[in-house]
Structure formats: C-alpha cells, structure tokens
Amino acid sequence: MKLVIFGLTVSSSWGNGxxxxxxxxxxxxxxxxxxxxxxERDVPYYAAHRDLTQLLMGELCLYGSWGDxxxxxxxxxADADVGVVTSYCPDGRAASELxxxxxxxxxxxxxxxxxxxxxxxxxxxxxxxxxxxxLPPQGLGDFDLVLSYTGGxxxxxxxxxxxxxxxxxxxxxxxxxxxxxxxPVEEYRSSLSYLGTYADDRQRTLxxxxxxxxxxxxxxxxxxxxxxxxxxxxxxDNIHFKRHLPPVEHASFYCSSRITLNVTRRAxxxxxxxxxxxxxxxxxxGTPILSDPWEGxxxxxxxxxxxxxxxxxxxxxxxxxxxxxELAAIxxxxxxxxxxxxxADRRAAQLEDALNGAYRAExxxxxxxxxxxxxxxxxxxxx
Length: 383
What we know:
Elements: E1 2-7, H1 18-31, E2 35-41, H2 44-47, E3 59-63, H3 66-78, E4 82-86, H4 92-105, E5 111-116, H5 119-127, E6 145-148, H6 153-162, E7 167-169, E8 192-195, H7 200-216, E9 222-226, E10 239-243, H8 250-255, E11 260-262, H9 266-271, H10 277-284, E12 289-291, E13 308-309, H11 313-320, H12 324-341, H13 344-377
Parallel strand pairs: 1-2, 1-4, 2-3, 4-5, 5-6, 6-7, 8-9, 8-11, 9-10, 11-12, 12-13
C-alpha cells in the first residue's frame, strides 16, 4: 500500500519524540513492501538541528507553506491507499480537511487516519476546553481510523470526547539495528543517566529520582542528555550534561550507563498505558531501566524482574546500589522482552493489521449502505 503522512517531523529529533519513532516504524513498514511519503513543514528550529535529510526507504517532502505543498499533496493522495495526519502537525487542520476530502471524493478513496502520538496532552486540553490546533473543529469522527500512542482508557475517551469511530493503539517501538549493546564510551559513563528534553511537568519527579540521589551520592557520576535545560536547573558538581544527543549517539549513551532513568510527563503518567520509546531503546541496548510508576507499565515490562520502579529518592538510591549481577539480570530480561514484543517491525505488522481491519470495515459499511439504498428503491411486491 501507499502511505501519505502529514506529520510534525521525521527529519529532526531535536526537542521531540516523534522523529525517532517514525524512522524505525517507516523503515520497517517499507521493508514489508509498502511505499511512504512524509510531508513535513520546514521550520527553522528543526532545520537548525536536522539529523536526517532523506528517508532510507520512502520520500521526505519538506515544504515552506501549505499553498506550495497543496498540488503535490493532492497528486500523492490521488493514488494513495492511506492518508495519515498526526498530532502536532503544524498544518493539522488543513491536512485533515485535505485527507478527508480526498477520502470522500476520489473514486479509489484512500483510508483516512489520524495518529495521535500525544493522546494524554490532546485529551487534557480538550477536557480543559482549550482549542487544539491540530484537530479538526468537528473532532475525529470523520476519520476511518484513529490510532493512539496511548492505550487503556485513552481509547475510550477518543471515542466519547472526540467522536472517533474506530480506534486502535500503536505504541512506541525500537529499531534493533540502531539500538543494541555497544562498548561503553568514557564521555557517557555514569551510575545513573537520564535522556530527555527538559519539561516543567517532569521536573519534580526528576529532582526526586535523579537530582536528590546525586546530592546524596557525591562520589557517583550522574549524566543528563537533552535540550532546553534552563540555567536555573539545580545542577550539582557530580551531575554532568550533554546538550542534545542525536539518535546516532543514543546507543552509546545508554550502553555507558550503569542504569538509565525514565521520567514520564504528567499527563501521560496520569492517563497511563503510554510507554516512552526511550524505554524500548534503552532495553534493546541491554541497559537496566529505572522508571517512575504509572498505570499500565506492567503491560510492557514486569516491575522487579524486567524494570526497576522508584516512587521516591530512597527507592532510587536502592536501585543504584543493586549489585552488578542483579542489574545485569534485569537488563537481560528487558532486552529479551523488547526484541520479542516492542520492535519497529512488530509495530509495523500491527499497523498493517489495523489498516486492513479498518479497510475491511469500511468496505462492509459501504456494501451495507448500497444494499439498503437498493432495497429502498425497489418496487413494492404485491402479495
């Protein structure tokens, strides 16, 4: 099938979690024989930190304005099987209108799909009565399929609050060809590492599980990698910092960490069933993971045997002080689980199933509608 996507970014991993996920997923989807076109608005902040200039298997279309893009997008949708719009797409409303119009008007109509990679944020803003710029004004009821990065109750809320007719989860994943065990790099060595963009709603948990342990363990080395950290961040002498690591460096970063920390954004932690792709990346690298707790975590990793969980500073220190043997056993179990269940190829297969299921359901609905119309136009039968 041919997949046409209107998204936030695949070309730059700076300050967002979309790019790395898309790279692995689209590569796996293309390897399964499909064609891909990804439309991304060329904005200065991603252009300045671009770490991918073309898709290995597919077409990346960078555009300056929606007006410039429109003729090209229409041409691609004319022979597409699926049109996808994502959360935080800068032209989300216009792209949704285009995809939905194409789905309704073309004789060989592409399946219309909305993929929300930020479902807890979307729903929290809708609940607060805020306008969500990337959503159609009428909600999601016109799409043939709504995919969600978040499972659990989020799927029900997408239906009840935004009118989605058909929903399916499509979680994060990892490309094992990019994330795998490597020798440690001295620059990235640490007792505990954290890789993530700065966010106010993660700061309290980060201070509890990372900054406070660093203060209490001054002889240990702690390392943060990420973008947008303010000067007011509570640094200590043993917390080191690496500004924005491109994806090519992620494996070395993880593999040089005795343990790496996962901190979930507040909206995602409150809703649950929303695993960061960083969990799967670190696990594929064979690195033990320490995470804050959230509902549904045990659907992806078993706490205690595949992942460590800490609710406060003391529990985080307890994890840091585990023996090398205990940490190695946890890391090995998590890597085995990840390679079996959380790879990009596994998600690509799940995407195929969701798309094919939606396509069959739409065909059935169309046939039922045609049958009803035919029945209603028949002449009455005399008895």
